[in-house]
Amino acid sequence: MNSYWFQFIAGAALTASLAGGVVQAQDTTSSDKTFVKNAMEGSLAEVNYAKLALQKSQDKNVRQFATKMIHDHEMLITDMKPLAKKMGVKVPSGPPLSDHAKYMELKMKSGTDFDRAYVEAMVKDHHDDLQTFLDEESKTSNPDLKAAVQKGESVIRQHTEMIDNIAHMGGIQTPPIPANA
Question: Which CATH code for domain 3-169?
């Protein structure tokens, strides 16, 4: 994710620290906590998929995208840890088990079959993630989380546009970006 997102998370953590270091309990719901946990787990999964892409792909666009995913998502995880801690969310140690099957499916592919499957998976993930961030923005009353989600949307939109362009170059259709994005 881009530097704006990371600067914001760091700024939000600093602001919360300067304001007493506590996110108000009434501003953090269980769905907010679930969102933060899922976002961090999703970033761990993106890193795993991207590392696999760097091992298996020879396509320069796929490799560039994978490199960006590793960089952006590792920074996201690092920068979200203080916000998660303030919200009482345990930092996940790995991607969700639900992503294991998709990872194994990708691992068994090679060449252009791998590239196509990876791009298709990333298109689906990023479109889904963008909608999830939009939904969270409209639901949360936690001002720190709302601001982080808004910044995250721009990064996810950038990733979505990037992977959609790669998909189109490979003749892969993509769904429309959500209208409220």
Answer: 1.20.1260.10
User: In the prediction, which pLDDT does 27 show?
Assistant: 61
The angle formed by the CA atoms of residues 134, 136 and 139, to the nearest 5 degrees, is 115
pLDDT above 90 (res 5):
no
Instruction: Determine the Cα–Cα distance for residues 49 and 44; give it in Å rounded to an integer.
Output: 9
> Distance between the two ends of the chain, CA-based, in angstroms?
17
Domain boundaries, the chain: 3-169
